[in-house]
Amino acid sequence: MTDLPDNDLPHALLTGYRNFMSGRFANESLRYKELAEQGQTPETMVIACCDSRAAPEIIFDTRPGEIFVVRNVANLVPPYAPDGEYHSTSSALEFAVQSLKVKHIVVLGHGRCGGIKAALDSESVPLSPSDFIGKWMSLVAPAAETIAANTLMTSGERQTALERISIRYSIANLRSFPCVDILEKKGRLTLHGAWFDISTGELWVMDRKTGDFIRPSGE
Ligand SMILES: [Zn+2]
Q1: 115 CA to middle of ligand 1, Å?
Q2: 116 CA distance to ligand 1 centroid (A)?
Q3: What angle do CA 189, 110, 123 make, to 5 degrees?
Q4: Binding residue ranges for Zn(2+)
Q5: pTM of this prediction?
Q6: What's the 73 CA to ligand 1 centre distance in angstroms?
Q7: Residue 119 CA, ligand 1 centroid: distance in Å
Q8: For residue 125, what are the β-bridge partners?
Q9: 117 CA to middle of ligand 1, Å?
Q10: Dist. CA 163–CA 183, nearest whole Å
Q11: How far, in Å, is the centroid of ligand 1 from the Cα of 109?
Q12: What DSSP string describes the chain?
């Protein structure tokens, strides 16, 4: 048992860490040792939301070293923009594709996404282009404005629609990166979309031909 001063971190985190050390780390110590010595070789990159309820490692029940994850507000991929600015998602993508040579990229969206809600509901959640989130969510502003204006849909339907449209949008933006486009055309990289319903645990997977979200067979 690692001895840590109890005043360093929130108590729940320290308790969790101790459970991790006596449970998962103890059970998988050999795997951690191998990963430390040989480096990581994940075959899949997951681009997920920061939302605390939609952690891809938990949803996909993955082992250490199995998936390379980048999380941001509303699991968005910005378009390729080599403009000298700071691009955290793009740099993670570049590393995953060019250095780790992942074979799959999954854009994982989820229900009740706060970022998507903010993009749709500008009255109750005002976003300004001068705010970081406002600027970030402007990536999906055209779709958000179109959907927000659709009074035939309920607010829940609008929310789910934009959550799924933004996944397709992010996949389109992935293809604006030359390294992704080239490898996908060579058949060495596959792009996927998925949407997780946090209330039921259902996972809906994007049909790559139609863009529709369907329940995987056997589920
Ligand atoms: Zn979210």
Answers
A1: 6
A2: 7
A3: 125
A4: 49, 51, 110, 113
A5: 0.93
A6: 6
A7: 11
A8: none
A9: 9
A10: 27
A11: 7
A12: -----TTSS-HHHHHHHHHHIIIIIHHTHHHHHHHHHH----SEEEEEE--TT--HHHHTTPPTTSEEEEEEGGG--PPP--SSS--HHHHHHHIIIIIS--SEEEEEEETT-HHHHHHH-TTTS---TTSHHHHHHGGGHHHHHHHHT-TTS-HHHHHHHHHHHHHHHHHHHHTTSHHHHHHHHTTS-EEEEEEE-TTT--EEEE-TTT--EEPPTT-
User: Which residues define the annotated binding site?
Assistant: 49, 51, 110, 113
Band the pLDDT of 208: cuts 50, 70, 90: very high
113 Cα–ligand 1 center, Å: 4
Dist. CA 114 → ligand 1 center (Å):
5
Tokens of 111: 């229900």
Lowest mean pLDDT among 46-55, 94-103, 108-117, 125-134: 125-134
Q: Domains in the chain, ordered, with CATH?
A: 1-39 (no CATH), 40-214 (3.40.1050.10)
- Which structure tokens are listed for 147? 């959907």
**Lookup result for tokens 């378009």:** 79
> What pLDDT, in 10s, does the model give residues 41-73?
999 999 999 999 999 999 999 999 999 999 999
Paired tokens of 14: 């320290």
